[in-house]
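CORE FACILITY INTAKE
Project code: CF-77B
Contact: R.S. (postdoc)
Sample description: multi-component assembly, four entities in total
Requested service: structural model of the whole complex
Turnaround: standard
Below are the sequence entries exactly as provided by the requester. Do not edit them.
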Amino acid sequence: MGLREPLAQIAAECSLPKALEAMGERWSFLILRAAFNGLKHFEEIQSNLGIARNILANRLGRLVDVGILDRQPCPEDRRKIEYRLTEKGVDLLPTMIALRQWGEKWETGCPSNPVLVDKRDLEPVADVRVFSHDGRALEWEDLSFHWREELEARAAE
Amino acid sequence: MGLREPLAQIAAECSLPKALEAMGERWSFLILRAAFNGLKHFEEIQSNLGIARNILANRLGRLVDVGILDRQPCPEDRRKIEYRLTEKGVDLLPTMIALRQWGEKWETGCPSNPVLVDKRDLEPVADVRVFSHDGRALEWEDLSFHWREELEARAAE
DNA sequence: CGGTATCCACATGGATACTG
DNA sequence: CAGTATCCATGTGGATACCG
């Protein structure tokens, strides 16, 4: 099954729709970015993004519901609320960085600021890309979609 | 500037909002997936996604406008229209695969089908992640956001 | 501080019918 | 085949006021 031959029926078991259920709304990625940048409080995020309060409340609630953010009283001031990334939330970093890098390359044409760097040497991270199981960088031409069943049948031979 | 210390002002030059302008709508990623899966024609995409015709027309138009898809008469039948990924569109693959893998891990809990494989050995590609400039796989703890100016000042010392 | 409540505008989305 | 046109429902988003 080649990559450029259309699939008769696709998407039957693709996780993308499910992922988009959680992250598909316009503000979700921006709220997530705020979280990655260390913003934890409602007012902080609201003033930084300029998002309407009711929408922010709604989105934060949804992100908490799906387990991307965690809502806790602030340790140093129990009256305040703190939103933190869960492990599931942190796991969205490659997606977010990939999209940001794409925007840098094709939309703005210039590097974003602040930069995501490796703490060890303060060097900017590499472009996010697709690698083979043994670490070779792959181009679109090197890739193909295959049905799992077909691969298993082939492996069984 | 540590990763867990909040940034006073963020997002001033981040390309993410611009990227989301192009890809932020619910259907955009799914239409893109259809394109990656080799679907080229309006009716094909419409029946595969179950999207309303007017919305699909609108989204296809927008994706063409921003240069992610290219709209051409079909080579073998000039009466038909064909949508193909541009280079800019293909460049969204890491983002899409990263999001799909995240969904597999956290939302559906099972691998998607069809699988993206390396043509050479038909092995599924590796999980998309963030690497350092010299190819070390980085965890969230290894990362930090820094202002470009600060990095340049430091380098000049 | 971290929300709700309200109100309103517009965008998104779906269904269906029609067209070149 | 690849859309438009139309209609309608709901969702998203913004502004503002209010609240515990």
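Facility notes:
- Residues 41-43, 46, 53-54, 56-57, 60, 77, 79-81 of chain B lie near DNA strand D (CB under 10 Å from a C1').
- Chain B has seven helices and four strands.
Invoice: internal transfer
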